[in-house]
Amino acid sequence: MADPKRPKQPHGRSSIYKGVDGWWHGRVSIGVRDDGGADRRHVRGTSKAVVTSKVRALEKLRDEKSVPLPGSAKWTVEAWLIHWLDNIAASHVKATTLSAYRVAVHHHLIPGIGKHKLDALQPEHLESLYRRMLAQPTKFGEQTKPATVHQVHRTIRTALNEAVRRGHLSQNPATIARPPRVDPHDVEPFAVDEVKRLFLTAAKRRNGVRWVLALALGLRQGEALGLQWSDVDFQTHVLTIRRSRLRPDYAHGCGGTCGRRYAGYCPARTKTNADTDTTKSRAGRRQIGLPDQLVWLLDQHQDAQAAERSHAGAAWHEGGWIFATETGEPLNPRTDWAHWKELLKEADIRDSRLHDARHTAATVLLLLGVSQPTIMSVMGWSNPAMTQRYAHVIAPIRQDVARQLGGLLWGDQRGAN
């Protein structure tokens, strides 16, 4: 133990001494604790030079007013990330954002760097993790994409920013670490003939108008699946985007006895999140004018759903969803994605991301000469720079600039039906 008879330094000056335990010790006055007592920090080392260096470093942090709070050294990266997720992030971010944070934390950050002391984490530790992620295949045998690494990087940066803000760290190593470069994904809108083939194929499928909304209005998947009939004004031809459908989260309801790794496959699973959340758009709720053709298609879809409701009888779950299962329940985004892939195959269209339908809508609006503020309103963008991403991809449908949106996409299909 340290020598209890060591001389005290006047006016709170730091002290360095050798204790009876054989170690060199240092004491640095930092300020005042929450209880009003003196906050005097202790360091130790095997030599006077080592302790002197530690004391000078602590004095520098004190002068810069960036000394970590007492007890911060007890945090591991794993403990902090779990605390941050459950007690800080969970209360002020959207459900979709929190879900992405949890994947990054539990699948990548904790297994990769979780055992480090929080105050000992270095930028090099993060960069090493990023390299390992890129070198190791995913559970599906695919190479990890740089965009996935960037999501992990953004998560740890956000979590450590909070640790700095609360005094548990003096600086954030994630702001220094360099993640791999991410090349922007090329915008690949569908050509007009592809859009028409998709529409004709969708007309033969259940919930086919769902894909018309994606291609003509650029609705995000969650926005389309979150639509309810109360959001459609058939008199004024206005669609209001109020909410976004969430991917269901489940917990085991069997007490862990079913043997299934994922709770979603548990026979007694219980749902743990809401069906919807607010939309991604910073503008919040937005309204979109509907072409006459789309109003007619929605009216036909409503009649088809009424027939399904009558056929289902007591099994029908009335939720007011525009796009529902055969028993009225909201569609699962994963199921919706599978339906999109089936539609592409049936229409003999190149394999494409579901989000490419949104790119198509933005491109069509640009070609029609719609003003930038109107495009931003329809697409739900808050940054005007988003429109610049599409400026170089309008050639595939340039010959159709002069046509109106309804005629361009649907022609006069009402008479053909």
Quickly describe the structure:
Pfam families: Phage_int_SAM_3, Phage_integrase. GO terms for molecular function: DNA binding. With 417 residues, the chain is mainly α.
Overview of the structural elements:
The protein contains 14 helices and 10 strands. The protein has 4 domains: 10-67, no CATH class; 74-175, Orthogonal Bundle (DNA polymerase, domain 1); 192-243 and 278-416, hpI Integrase, Chain A, CATH 1.10.443; 246-277, no CATH class. The protein has helices at residues 48-63, 77-87, 95-113, 123-135, 146-165, 192-202, 209-217, 221-225, 292-312, 333-346, 356-367, 372-379, 405-409, 413-416, and strands at 15-18, 24-32, 38-45, 232-233, 238-241, 244-245, 250-251, 270-271, 276-277, 286-289.
Key structural traits:
3-stranded antiparallel sheet; 417 residues; 10 strands; Integrase-like_cat_sf; DNA-binding; mainly alpha; hpI Integrase, Chain A; Tyrosine_recombinase_XerCD; DNA integration; 14 helices
CATH topology of the largest domain: hpI Integrase, Chain A
Q: Which percent bin holds the helix content?
A: 40-55%
What coarse outline follows from CA principal-axis ratios? elongated
Strand order in space, largest sheet: 1-2-3
CATH class of the largest domain: Mainly Alpha
Q: How many domain modules?
A: 4
Q: What does the largest sheet look like?
A: 3 strands, antiparallel
Radius of gyration: 29 Å
Number of strands: 10
CATH homology superfamily name of the largest domain: Intergrase catalytic core
Multimerization state = single chain
Second CATH tier, the architecture of the largest domain: Orthogonal Bundle
Beta-strand residue fraction: 5-15%
Task: Determine the structural class based on helices, strands and strand pairing.
Answer: mainly alpha
Number of helices: 14
